[in-house]
From TrEMBL:
This protein's name: P1 family peptidase
Organism: Lysinibacillus agricola
Family the UniProt entry places it in: Belongs to the peptidase S58 family.
Listed PANTHER family: BLR5678 PROTEIN (PTHR36512:SF3), D-AMINOPEPTIDASE (PTHR36512)
Coiled-coil stretches: none
UniProt-listed Gene3D superfamilies: L-amino peptidase D-ALA esterase/amidase
A Pfam entry, by short name: Peptidase_S58
Length: 323
């Protein structure tokens, strides 16, 4: 196993980055189609095609998911993923055209790098074209390239977020994988020890600014709405209905609540997609439990792997400074 979401059969992942904009996108491809559900828990989301995933609606399978930086501008990246899949003949047969279904979610990464340079359809195409089954780097990769966290006291106190992925093998052959881009307004803490790993930090003194304590004292956040979010995907080699996929997405949001403080705020757009790629059924609560565990590991992996970028410190860089 590679220890990432491509351990789930039928899932490929590719990335594209732009160093000038310090931004990027990640394409998660399911070329054979997958049942998909979504849960949007944050109050400032940037999404595309999520209405199609409602269990009452007609579309039953998707062919990819696009996670992107660039705020709402980054939704263009999903068009490139669609273009690549269309060239491969992958999508819904509409008679006169084959239409790939590619839901998308974006994060705001315009604080660092050139804010006028955002993921484009071309970048989405490149990410999809590069998608493979196998290892890839966590941290400053794809949609997590320009991600930052700990902005509740103001973006000047932020640290580096990042992209993380993980997988868990359960009983009876089930495999659950997670991929996530962490760009939260809050701090990221170890779910077992509650130790702060990265978040709001005074760059001059090196002191932590606990985001929850800050909110209690000052009432009002210094962060701007729509400038933060955690977006991710769970994949499982199980047969799911759209309603079951949505429920697992809801359960997976527990991983964000166990690692990000505060989370699901008016300033975040937290969005989780769930893909079912298999033909064997399992209890939804069991899959939700494994999905939550995998997402926790992915969040922490993304934070611990991120490198300092554009003078924004990371978990790794402050560890080096403290030794």
């Amino acid at each position: 196993m590679f220890g990432n979401i491509t351990d789930v059969p039928g899932v490929k992942v590719g990335h594209a980055e732009n160093s000038e904009g310090i931004t990027g996108c990640t394409a998660i491809l399911v070329e054979n189609g997958a049942v998909c559900g979504v849960d949007v828990r944050g109050s400032a989301p940037g999404t595309r095609e999520t209405d199609a995933l409602d269990p009452i609606n007609e579309i039953n399978h998707v062919h990819g998911i696009c996670l992107s930086g660039g705020s709402a501008f980054g939704l263009d990246a999903a068009t490139g993923v669609m273009q690549f899949l269309e060239e491969q003949g992958i999508g819904v047969d509409a008679g006169v055209a084959t239409i790939p279904i590619v839901p998308s979610a974006v994060l705001f990464d315009l604080f660092i790098g050139d804010p006028k340079t955002r993921p484009t359809a071309r970048m989405g195409y490149e990410a999809a074209k590069s998608a493979v089954i196998g290892p890839f780097a966590n941290g400053n990769t794809g949609a997590g390239y320009g991600a930052t966290i700990g902005k509740l006291a103001g973006p000047q106190f932020c640290m580096k977020g990042g992209l993380g992925s993980a997988s868990i093998a359960g009983k009876e052959g089930v495999v659950v994988g997670a991929i996530v881009a962490v760009n939260a307004v809050g701090d990221v803490k170890d779910p077992n020890t509650r130790e702060t790993l990265a978040g709001a930090r005074n760059p001059k003194t090196g002191e932590w600014i606990d985001c929850c304590a800050y909110l209690e004292e000052y009432v009002q956040s210094e962060a701007l709405s729509g400038t933060n979010t955690t977006i991710g995907v769970i994949a499982v080699n199980a047969r799911l209905t759209k309603a079951e996929a949505k429920k697992i997405a809801q359960l997976t949001q527990n991983a964000l609540a166990r690692t990000i403080y505060p989370v699901h705020t008016m300033l975040d757009g937290d969005t989780i997609f769930v893909l079912g790629t298999g033909d064997k059924t399992y209890p939804v609560d069991y899959l939700g439990h494994l999905a939550t565990r995998a997402m926790e590991v992915a969040i922490i992996a993304g934070i611990k792997a991120a490198d300092k970028l554009d003078e924004v410190e990371s978990f790794k860089s402050i560890q080096i400074m403290s030794t």
